[in-house]
Design a protein that fits this description.
heterotrimer; A mainly beta (about 200); B mainly beta (about 90); C alpha/beta (about 240); A: about 200 residues; Sulfite Oxidase, Chain A, domain 2; 7-stranded mixed beta sheet; 5-stranded mixed beta sheet; 12 strands; globular; C: Elongation Factor Tu (Ef-tu), domain 3; Rossmann fold; 6-stranded antiparallel beta sheet; 6-stranded parallel beta sheet; 5 helices; about 35% strand
Chain lengths: ~200, ~90, ~240
C-alpha cells in the first residue's frame, strides 16, 4: 500500500465520471510528453507525403499547398494513455479524407511518420470518414512546436499517442507495421473506451 | 527547445528495479553510430508513455522501457554492447 | 531497490524558493556524496507521481537531507516546499547512482561546477570533504541568478578553507554591493577558477541541461579529459 502524502493533490484534475473513458481523469493544462527532442523543421522545408502500398509517392504537398486545402474546425475530446483527458479541445486541420481523395489504394493499413523518427500505425479506415485530420491550429492559435507544430496527426477516437506530433506523411501498406510505442508494449489499436492501453489488454 | 533533456542518471531508479547492476556505471556502444557513452550521459526522455534513452552523438534510440501493472517491456536493440564494470552491482 | 517511507523531521528554508527537508527514512542503507533519490507522492485518490532529488547531506549523518527548489508549475516541488511539514510522510527510493559520486579520492584535485539547484549534490561532496578531513584540493564554482537565490549561502562561507575554495558568480544581481564574479560560467571563468588539465582533476558539473552542456563542452575544450568530467542534468521543469 503506497503511503498517501497529506495534502498532496498533484496536477489539477477531476475524476471523469462518465464523460471520459475508463481510468481517465480530466486536467486543466495540456501536458507535454515526448520521446525525443522537438524537431525544428522550417516551413520552407516541410512537406506532407502519402506513400502508397507500391512504395511510390501518391501525393505530396508543400506547406503552402497544404495550407491552401480546405481546413475544418473541430472540437473533440482527447485521451492520453497516461490517463489524462481533455474535453472540448478546439483544433483546425485538414481532414485525412481530403488528403487521400483521389488516391487509388487497396491498402488496409497506414503508418504515420514524423520528423525525429516517430511512427504510429493504424488501420487506414480509422483515418477516414471524418475521424482524423492533419492539424495545424489549436485553440485558435498556430500549433506550438512542443505540442507537435507545425502540424500533427489528430485521431481523437484513439489514445493520443496515435496523434503523431510533427507528422510528415502516411505510408499505406497491406501489412500492419507496429510503430514506436506499439512495438514496445502499447496496444496495437488503442481504443480508450475499451481501455486498450497495453499488449495484453 | 528540448522537452525532456535529462540524462541517464534520471532513469537509474526505474532501471535499478530491473537490473542487478547500477546503470549509471555502465557504458553502451550505440547500435546506430557505434559511439561509446557512459549510460549516465545518454539523453533521457522520461515524460513520455515510457522511458527513452538516446545516443548523445546521433540521437538514435538506444533503450525503450514501458511498464504496466502486469509487466515491463524493454527494447535495447539500440545498444550494440553494454559494458558493466566490476563493482557496479546494486 | 524498494520504496522506503520518509518522515519529515525538520524543514529549513534556504532561499525564497528552496527548502531543505531533514528526513527520518526507515531502513536507510546509507549513501555516497553525489547520489540522489526518487521521491514518490500519492494522493488520496491513488494518483501518484515521482521526481528525482539530489541528496544534500554527506554520508554518515543521522538524517537524510534533501534540498528542493520550488518550480512554479511543478507537481512535486510545490508540495515538498510549501505543504510538507514535520510528521508528513512520502515514499523515497535510493540511494541511486554510482557515477556522479565523490568518495574522498585525494589522488586528484576536484572541480565542482553548479548552476542553480545543481549545487545540491556538490554540497554533499563539500560536506563530505569537510567531515572526513580530506586533503583533496577542492574548488566550487557556483552560478546563481542573484544573491538571494544562492542556496547554502552561510553554509558555503563556513566550508571555505585552504582546501575548499568557493567562488560564486551571479548572473542577474543588480546591487552594486556585490563585488564578486558576475556573468555565466564560461571558458574564461573556468580557466581562471578551475584547475589546469595537467593536474587531471575530477570535474563534476550539475544543473539545468543547457548549463551542463555549456560547462562540460568548455571543460573538454580547455583540455580536460572527457572521462573525468561527470555530469548530472536537471530538467528545466524538474517539477
Amino acid at each position: 500500500m503506497p503511503i498517501v502524502s497529506r495534502g498532496f493533490q498533484g496536477r489539477r484534475r477531476q475524476p471523469g465520471a462518465g464523460l471520459v473513458p475508463p481510468g481517465q481523469y480530466l486536467v486543466d493544462d495540456f501536458p507535454v510528453l515526448s520521446a525525443g527532442p522537438t524537431p525544428d523543421t522550417a516551413l520552407d522545408d516541410w512537406d506532407f507525403t502519402i506513400v502508397d502500398e507500391t512504395g511510390g509517392v501518391a501525393a505530396r504537398w508543400t506547406w503552402d499547398e497544404f495550407r491552401s486545402l480546405p481546413p475544418e474546425h473541430i472540437t473533440v475530446d482527447i485521451h492520453c494513455v497516461t490517463k489524462w483527458s481533455k474535453l472540448g479541445t478546439r483544433w483546425e486541420g485538414v481532414a485525412i479524407d481530403t488528403l487521400v481523395e483521389g488516391i487509388d489504394t487497396a491498402a488496409e493499413f497506414a503508418v504515420a511518420f514524423s520528423d525525429g523518427g516517430y511512427t504510429t500505425n493504424l488501420p487506414l479506415e480509422d483515418l477516414l470518414d471524418g475521424r482524423a485530420w492533419v492539424a495545424f491550429g489549436f485553440e485558435g492559435e498556430d500549433l506550438e512546436p512542443e505540442h507537435g507544430g507545425p502540424a500533427r496527426l489528430l485521431v481523437p477516437h484513439l489514445y493520443f499517442w496515435k496523434s503523431a506530433k510533427w507528422v510528415r506523411g502516411l505510408r499505406l501498406s497491406d501489412e500492419d507495421e507496429p510503430g514506436f510505442w506499439e512495438s514496445v508494449g502499447y496496444h496495437n489499436y488503442g481504443d480508450p473506451w475499451r481501455e486498450q492501453r497495453y499488449w495484453d489488454d | 527547445m528540448d522537452t525532456s533533456p535529462l540524462d541517464g542518471n534520471a532513469t537509474a531508479g526505474a532501471l535499478g528495479e530491473l537490473f542487478a547492476f547500477d546503470v549509471t556505471m555502465a557504458v553502451t556502444t550505440c547500435a546506430h553510430c557505434r559511439h561509446t557513452w557512459p549510460m549516465a550521459d545518454l539523453r533521457a526522455y522520461v515524460r513520455a508513455p515510457g522511458i527513452v534513452l538516446r545516443c548523445p552523438s546521433c540521437g538514435g534510440v538506444q533503450l525503450r522501457l514501458v511498464q504496466s501493472t502486469e509487466r515491463t517491456w524493454l527494447d535495447v536493440r539500440g545498444i550494440q554492447m553494454l559494458q558493466i564494470p566490476a563493482g557496479a552491482t546494486v | 531497490m524498494r520504496w522506503l517511507v520518509a518522515t519529515v523531521a525538520e524543514t529549513i528554508p534556504e532561499t525564497a524558493r528552496a527548502i531543505t527537508l531533514r528526513l527520518d527514512v526507515s531502513n536507510w542503507p546509507g549513501h555516497r556524496a553525489g547520489q540522489h533519490v526518487d521521491v514518490r507522492l500519492t494522493a488520496e485518490d491513488g494518483y501518484a507521481t515521482q521526481r528525482s532529488y539530489s541528496i544534500a547531506s554527506p554520508p554518515g549523518i543521522d538524517r537524510l537531507e534533501l534540498t528542493v527548489e520550488r518550480i512554479d508549475d511543478g507537481e512535486v516541488s510545490p508540495w515538498l516546499t510549501t505543504v510538507a511539514d514535520v510528521g508528513d510522510q512520502f515514499e523515497l527510493r535510493g540511494p541511486i547512482g554510482g557515477w556522479f559520486v565523490w568518495d574522498g579520492d585525494a589522488s586528484a584535485p576536484v572541480l565542482l561546477v553548479g548552476g542553480g539547484s545543481g549545487v545540491v549534490p556538490l554540497m554533499a561532496m563539500l560536506r563530505h570533504h569537510a567531515a572526513s578531513g580530506s586533503t583533496a584540493a577542492m574548488r566550487l564554482v557556483y552560478s546563481a541568478r542573484t544573491l538571494g537565490d544562492v542556496i547554502y549561502r552561510q553554509g558555503l562561507e563556513g566550508l571555505a578553507s585552504p582546501h575548499r575554495a568557493i567562488t560564486l558568480t551571479l548572473t542577474r544581481e543588480s546591487s552594486s554591493d556585490w563585488v564578486g564574479h558576475r556573468g555565466r560560467v564560461d571558458v574564461d571563468m573556468l580557466a581562471e577558477l578551475g584547475w589546469p588539465p595537467s593536474v587531471r582533476p575530477h570535474c563534476y558539473v550539475c544543473g539545468p541541461t543547457p548549463f551542463v552542456e555549456v560547462v562540460a563542452d568548455a571543460l573538454v575544450g580547455l583540455g580536460h579529459e572527457p572521462a573525468r568530467v561527470r555530469t548530472e542534468r536537471f530538467g528545466p521543469t524538474g517539477g
